[in-house]
Amino acid sequence: MMEKTGTRTGAAWGILFGGLAVFVAAPALLLATGHDTIKPSADSAKELSLAGALIPALAGILLIHGIPLHAPRLLPPSTDRRVLRRQATALALIAFLWPLALFLVSSAGQHALVRDIWALAKPLVFLALPLFLLRILRPRGEPDPFRLTWRPRQTWQWLAPIPAVLVFGWLYVLGPLAPPLPSAEDYPDPVILAVGATLTFFTANVLEEVFFRGMLQTRLEALFGRWPGILLASLLFAWLHLPTHGQGTLPLTLGAIVAFQGFFGLFTGYLWSRYRNLWAPIAAHTAMNTLPLLLM
């Protein structure tokens, strides 16, 4: 019997239906305006198809749902919901305000500044600052009940996510709807590329999953339930890409980041919620960001 992950309050129902509405409206907006392909970033010359973004994420979600194994105790009991609410609010504010600040800087014409600090500031914003806030906001003298563990105890927690991650990676990188693989001419010297790929692995593949799934989503699930928590964390994850994934107009940019990064967040969020193995969403993130480079 699966343990409940939160009380389905009025706020939880609002997040559930509001989040679902946003995820339906985003691809509908893109299709209605004739944007069935978008640029992966504001300064990219290539485009990715909408179907190529949605189908791998949805296929992964269906596979996760179809495998009966799941964590029997999704969350530890929370004795003080006020502390939990403060922690979740602090993390959500970081996730909302940091991209907003960078977007305002970029809108003022400082695009180079945003690119320079985008990756370098992530360890401070998404690791050091959250850990500091979680420490001072927890009950004095009590351990953190949501402390992340990097080694799941059960073997099935390592094996069960493999089909979904492999299918997602194949569809996203090599499938019939996948974008063309990059050519060597698209990238700089191999040494520079290796340094950049390593930096991306730690600042995007690892740090983003630790913060958005391990820290933020876990607490949102405890407050509102599994799917409201996944939806809200995924929308904030999509919002993270606002400063770097501009598509011209703001509505088009918002639709694009929800349809691409948001649906990917649903997939990795479900991976984390279902198996509580942080390496699973990190592997999926690596397949999306790093695997194309390895196949060059």
Descriptive terms for the model:
CAAX_protease, Rce1/LyrA-like_dom, mainly alpha, membrane, 296 residues, 68% helix, transmembrane, two-stranded antiparallel ribbon
Short description:
The protein has 12 helices and 2 strands.
Helix and strand arrangement:
Layout: H1 10-32, E1 37-38, E2 48-49, H2 50-66, H3 81-107, H4 111-120, H5 122-137, H6 156-159, H7 162-173, H8 190-224, H9 226-240, H10 250-275, H11 279-289, H12 291-294
Antiparallel strand pairs: 1-2
Helix pairs in contact: 1-9, 1-10, 2-7, 2-10, 3-4, 3-5, 3-8, 3-9, 5-8, 7-11, 8-9, 8-10, 8-11, 9-10, 10-11
Protein name: CAAX prenyl protease 2/Lysostaphin resistance protein A-like domain-containing protein
Keywords: Membrane, Transmembrane, Transmembrane helix
Transmembrane segments: 12-33, 48-67, 88-105, 117-137, 158-178, 190-211, 223-242, 254-272
Textual characterization of the structure:
The chain has 296 residues and is mainly α. Helices cover 68% and strands 1% of the residues. It is built from 12 helices and 2 strands; from the N terminus they run αββααααααααααα. The chain has helices spanning 10-32, 50-66, 81-107, 111-120, 122-137, 156-159, 162-173, 190-224, 226-240, 250-275, 279-289, 291-294; strands spanning 37-38, 48-49. The protein has a two-stranded antiparallel ribbon. The chain is globular, with a radius of gyration of 19 Å. The relative contact order is 0.20.
Q: What's the helix count?
A: 12
As a percent range, the share of strand residues is under 5%
Shape: globular
Order of secondary-structure elements: HEEHHHHHHHHHHH
Low-confidence stretches: 1-6
Number of E-type strands: 2
User: Over the alpha carbons, how many angstroms does the gyration radius reach?
Assistant: 19 Å
Mean pLDDT: 86
Tell me roughly what share of residues is in helical segments.
55-70%
Structural class: mainly alpha
End-to-end gap:
46 Å
Largest sheet: 2 strands, antiparallel
Strand order of the largest sheet: 1-2
Keywords: Membrane, Transmembrane, Transmembrane helix
Domain CAAX prenyl protease 2/Lysostaphin resistance protein A-like: 194-290
Protein name: CAAX prenyl protease 2/Lysostaphin resistance protein A-like domain-containing protein
Organism: Amycolatopsis oliviviridis
